[in-house]
Amino acid sequence: MRKIVFCLIICGCSVAALLAENKVTEEKFTPFYTRKAAPLLEKVIPAPPSITDPLFYNDWTQYQWGISQRNTERGQVAVSDARINAAYFMKRFTPAVGIELTPETHPELYRLFRRLHLTEQEAGYSAKKYFRRVRPYQQYHEPSGVPSHEHQTDFTSYPSGHTHCAWLVGLVLASIDPAHTEEIIKVAYEIGQSRVIVGFHYQSDVDMGRIAGSVTFARVSAEPEFQKLLEKARKEYARHKTSGK
């Protein structure tokens, strides 16, 4: 009888843990501001270089570099980096900060990352629509490193949204854990370069994606909701740092 009761208690705890896990990941999230309130990035960054522009040579050489990396360990990481979402960001930045980041252990940080991702999508919409730049795999009619993501009429290469979001998340995380700024920003930088490796973005797309991330970080910092959630995430993070878990 005691064994049965013990098993029921264990099962109950497992169910409770599962419900807690699903609770945060299944919440409905909104951006901190919409595209109507976002700075127009097309008024901030220059137009992408045309194929006849001398600056395009760097885009082309970096595209060739990216192809050379695809069948390497770095190329495998680049494919993984195509999975842009809050949970993946937590996993990706975990080695940089030295503690495991998951939606279960850091729900406030997860909420913050989810809303930052949605904000980035709003913030980058206008510039992508304005520039309508073709992606490298479209330009050269060559396979990318993530063929399942390809779309022949998705002309939204400039600026890079993945880079925009990774840089934004990196800046926010560095503000939470300044002791690991170098490691955090290095990861954010690598995620951007991954987009060059898989052939989804030119180097100039990625470079301007980082500028976009900086602009969005400055703009979102003025939002009271962002500051409130940031403070919750910072306190949560500090608790885990103290406990070493």
Q: Secondary-structure map with pairings?
A:
Blueprint: H1 2-25, H2 56-69, H3 73-80, H4 86-97, H5 107-131, H6 136-140, H7 161-176, H8 181-197, H9 203-220, H10 224-243
Helix pairs in contact: 2-8, 3-8, 4-5, 4-8, 5-7, 5-9, 5-10, 7-8, 7-9, 8-9
Q: Based on helices, strands and strand pairing, what is the structural class?
A: mainly alpha
Give a short account of the largest sheet. none
Give me the strand/helix succession.
HHHHHHHHHH
- CA radius of gyration is 20 Å
User: Mean pLDDT across all residues, rounded?
Assistant: 92
- DSSP strand tally: 0
Strand content: under 5%
| Cα separation of the termini | 36 Å
Q: How would the global form be characterised? A: globular
The parts where pLDDT drops under 50 for at least 5 residues are: 3-21
Helix content: 55-70%
Please give the count of helices: 10
Task: List its salient traits.
245 residues, mainly alpha, 10 helices, disordered N terminus
Report on the structure:
- The protein has 245 residues and is mostly helical.
- The chain is built from ten helices and no strands.
- The chain is globular, with a radius of gyration of 20 Å.
- The two termini are 36 Å apart.
